[in-house]
Design goal:
Elements (H helix, E strand, L loop, with lengths): L2 H12 L32 E9 L2 E9 L5 H10 L3 H4 L12 E5 L4 E6 L8 H13 L6 E6 L2 E2 L2 E2 L5 E2 L16
Parallel strand pairs: 4-5
Antiparallel strand pairs: 1-2, 3-4, 5-6, 7-8
């Protein structure tokens, strides 16, 4: 009967990781843990950022890599330029063609986007959804407001209702394609 507790104590103490006297750096694997082992190598110093593009009347997140994190205006310029050839080959496009926008970081975590007048557009909801979802995917942006000629602009949410208030990605969640 005494052998069981002794054996249990030996097993429990033999399974542990020995303690160390001081902290030390730990090198983590850079490749995915659940892959074929032939993972793409990401050059050191690259960062990933999200652009929301359009496919089949839905918003689709596309991840791009850059040497440094782009500013809010640079991300808007990328949206207006549209998809890369590789993104286009998967059916992605932009609803922002022909718009001129100026994005400015405001107080707190809000960005204000000044939008030019674009007549006869039928994809306003997707265009505003692209801008809001792209900007709020950034860690430093929580909400986006829109202006035209310096005045608050009413813009449509995914459900078609208009608002002058700050918008979040949740306002366009119904338009986001499943991952």
């Amino acid at each position: 009967m005494r052998r069981v507790p002794i054996l249990l104590v030996l097993l429990l103490t033999a399974c542990g990781v020995p303690a160390e006297d001081s902290p030390h750096p730990v090198e983590l694997p850079r490749a995915p843990l659940n892959g074929s082992g032939a993972a793409a190598v990401t050059p050191a110093g690259e960062v990933a950022h999200v652009l929301c593009l359009v496919r089949d009347e839905r918003l689709v997140q596309s991840v791009r890599r850059a040497p440094s994190y782009p500013g809010v205006q640079q991300q808007m310029n990328e949206l207006i330029t549209g998809p890369t050839p590789a993104e286009s080959s998967t059916g992605l496009s932009t609803a922002l063609a022909g718009l001129t926008v100026t994005a400015t970081a405001g107080p707190g975590s809000r960005v204000t986007v000044e939008v030019s007048r674009a007549e006869g557009r039928k994809d306003d909801i997707l265009a505003y959804g692209q801008m809001v979802c792209t900007l709020t995917a950034r860690p430093d942006v929580a909400a986006v407001s829109f202006t035209r000629e310096g005045r608050s602009l009413e813009v449509p949410r995914a459900d078609g209702t208009l608002t002058e208030g700050p918008l979040r990605s949740s306002d366009y969640a119904a338009l986001v394609a499943p991952a």
